[in-house]
Amino acid sequence: MSEISDLPWNGFNAISTFSGCGGSSLGYKMAGFRVLWASEFIPAAQETYRANHPKTILDTRDIRQVKAEDILAAIGMNVGELDLLDGSPPCASFSTAGAREAGWGKVKKYSDTTQRTDDLFFEFVRLVKEIQPKVFVAENVSGLVKGTAKGYFLEILAALKACGYKVSCRVLDAQWLGVPQSRQRTIFVGVRNDLACEPVHPVPLAYRYTVRDALPWITAKHSDHAQNPIEAECDISRFAIGKEWDRVKTGGQSSKYFSLQKPDLDKPCPCVTQTAGNPTAAGVCHPTQKRKFSIAELRRICAFPDDFILKGSYAQQWERLGRAVPPVMMSHIAATTRDQILRKL
Fold first, then answer.
1. In this predicted model, what pLDDT tens digit does every residue of 42-83 receive, in sequence order?
2. Could you give the residue numbers annotated as active site?
3. Is pTM, for the whole model, over 0.85?
4. CA–CA separation, 320 vs 45, rounded Å?
5. Which of 89, 173, 179, 338 could make a disulfide contact with 121, Cβ separation 3.0–4.6 Å?
């Protein structure tokens, strides 16, 4: 984290909405951006964000209450002056792992709160329209462009364009952007119409990092790394998924609990979901020991620095990482935006 803090400023400023624990913000900092202001509504996420981004103004109100003039006053800018507006609106209603359209329009549990979430992308659109940043980047689940949700996607795309932007949208996979995890995300990039640039996405890297790359000690006789405490909540031996773990080969997937997977050591880890920190819940497990990943291991699988501070219980820390945009993935998106858009203006 100190190495990231010491990186020179690239001359551009960003703000972040729906900031979570700060994965995206960290990615922008890795690309040299200053993140001046952030918004996060969930208390446990706020605590983690503050611990890792102490110099960023954190607004803890419901985004529906945040006005553009509030943000501009806080960062000392006028409409049209901000370089980049980033946002990751909550996406549970569009996730292929959830209830999808059955949950649309309903108030329901979200993290440590209860709220409606499927309308929040339009709050991001509102801020784009009112702040008029030079560039915006918005992130959501890949499920947004699939099935019935595609109607929402087309509405969002039209609304973003109507704000006065050229918009490009692609589904990117974190495993091709420096992250040892297969994690697909829909990424919108918009460039204001009056600027002589087109939106650009990063080109996939020529290599992928594996579970073994991320956790090089994993095949040692005693694979618990000396600096890697194993939380009690990692143990699944007394639960049904523990018995099923015995039946699944490394690199395989349970036929009984679809989400229960043992990663292949020589491939990127399957996607980490935010709910799998519950010891009884099926999800990605440790490939060689009958347990969930420790938080220290999960940081690496999600491409966070080893000293990134996480607050709360084991399940809450897991949720923060499971919901976050991997910082290394976002650093590539940010660097592409920096080099191929902002530096050409």
1. 999 999 999 999 999 999 999 999 999 999 999 999 999 999
2. 91
3. yes
4. 7
5. 89
